[in-house]
Amino acid sequence: MRNATSRILIGTLTGTLAGTLLVAASASAQDRSDWPESFTVGTASQGGTYFVYGSGWANLIADELGISGGGEVTGGPTQNMALVHGGDVALGLTTMGPAAEALAGESPLAPGLSMDNVCALFPMYETPFSITALSDSGITSIEDIPDGARIGFGPAASTSDTYFPAMLETLGVEFDRRNGGWSDLGGQLQDGLIDVIAFAAGIPIPAVSQLEVQTDVNIIEFTEEEQQTVLEAFPVSAFQIPASTYQTLEEDARAVSMWNFTIANCDLPEDFVYEVTKLSMENNDRMRDVHRSAATSIPENIEYNTVLPFHPGAVRWYEENGYEIPEDLKL
């Protein structure tokens, strides 16, 4: 009798479990009914941290959520705001300075247009502003940069190109402005076509690491006075580039920085963005595998976004996990 009863119970439980799994599978399929068939992450030029971080993050999403996607080379944070706002890419990476300008209708790409259909997802890392020259140039400080020096500021309208020229002008540097992708500018520096590269990218910057392997370089820090002057004039924070970042550095290098966040078109489905946020925030080890700057891609750093509203899907994950989002940063 016991065996018969056991068989009945097992059969009932098996049937119940199978039914539950079918319901779960059906619910999962239904939840994804409004998901995009594919997605693109707007990054920046090859040779920069944005491209490595954004492409790796896109691959992680695609692999884990089973949706086709990848990174796309763009002009960087300023263009990414425009691309995400217009729905040309679903996801992207931006810096808080260009984000604030775009939201206020002050983007150099579309003056007067408030890019208000862009939502924040999660913090990435701080972008330090740093300067690199070849060792045989004799340039070891900002003061050493000669008048008329050919300085590469990265892609046009990038964070570096938007802020670094103005910073150097504030510090009294006169220069010939050049633009290009970081890898391309690294080649130009080696070939003597430019004198200095003014980088704004997450560290370690692949192009700088590559230069170190191929030649001798100087990584130039701000003096205390120069740093204070820039802090008073621009929306940046004090930063120290750890000596362990590059072979060239013997001690930490004084710099300034700006925070970066991942962004999404605000019209993306809440469930999709929830899953993207959950995957990214609950797997920091895998994010660090993408790029080691992702060590700061953690929910505790959401406080550094005071500009963009968070996507409702991201808000849901944060609040479920005990992180408070200010009301003025909710849609």
From TrEMBL:
Swiss-Prot/TrEMBL keywords: Signal
SUPFAM superfamilies the UniProt entry points to: Periplasmic binding protein-like II
Pfam families the record matches: NMT1_3
InterPro entries listed in its UniProt record: TRAP_TAXI
Origin superkingdom: Bacteria
Span of the signal peptide: 1-29
Classification via NCBIfam families: TRAP_TAXI (TIGR02122)
Protein name according to UniProt: TAXI family TRAP transporter solute-binding subunit
Source lineage: Bacteria, Pseudomonadati, Pseudomonadota, Gammaproteobacteria, Oceanospirillales
